[in-house]
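Open question from group meeting: does this chain pack into something compact, or does most of it stay loose? Before anyone orders reagents, we agreed to write out a predicted structure and look at it together. Recording both the input and the output here so the notebook holds the full record.
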Amino acid sequence: MPAANAAEARPAGLWRLWRDDIACVKARDPAARNAFEILLTYPGVHAIIWHRLAHQLWRRGAKFPARFLSWICRLLTNVDIHPGATIGQEFFIDHGAGVVIGETAEVGDGVTLYHGVTLGGVSWTPGKRHPTLGDGVLVGAGAKILGPIKVGAGARIGANSVVVEEVPPGVTAVGIPARIVRALDRRAIGSGRVNLDHHLIPDPVGEVLSLLLDRVAFLEARLNHMQARGKKNEHEQLEEERFDDERAG
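Structure tokens returned:
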């Protein structure tokens, strides 16, 4: 983050940030073929280019021009990034549609967001009210991270999760509200690339349902066994009563 801030403070650094934003797409999107195609056809790249310009204006006190530029960006890309948000190097929004990043959000280097992600606030009180994402964080499609909380470096947030508490570095969090389900397997990540094995993210709800079904099956088997024993005992008792009646007769 400090490196990104220092780069954005210098006009020459803006070109380097744009170059890195474009270059990182090839490492994270298998569909990306070349820099020219990325620059022309990726709305997430367009959004970060516009944002870095708007953020420069915001830092220099030109608040209205910055907001107007971010509004144009939202119209063109369907990505809403407040010009006050601080975003590090090599930032990638895949697909772009519906992403919202609030004013006091802070995003580290090498972060990847998928479509529909919200970095939002939960208070109308001025001051820090949006999340802070560490370096290398990956946020799945539709996830919401709300409030002035921290998501540690290298953490992964599952699709459609709602995060309202801090997430430690290097873990995977899923669900509503999000819960930590496992530590990140560093061996699954290639050099310079993002681990895209979303299908390997655990399903805590499914696991709980599976345990409940196993428990129901066990209880049903036990009940059937008890009913069978009861019928056997009842049959034996009837046989004894009939035998006693025959002896008495």
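Observations to bring back to the group:
The helical segments are 2-8, 11-28, 35-41, 43-59, 63-77, 204-248.
Residues 203-249 form one domain.
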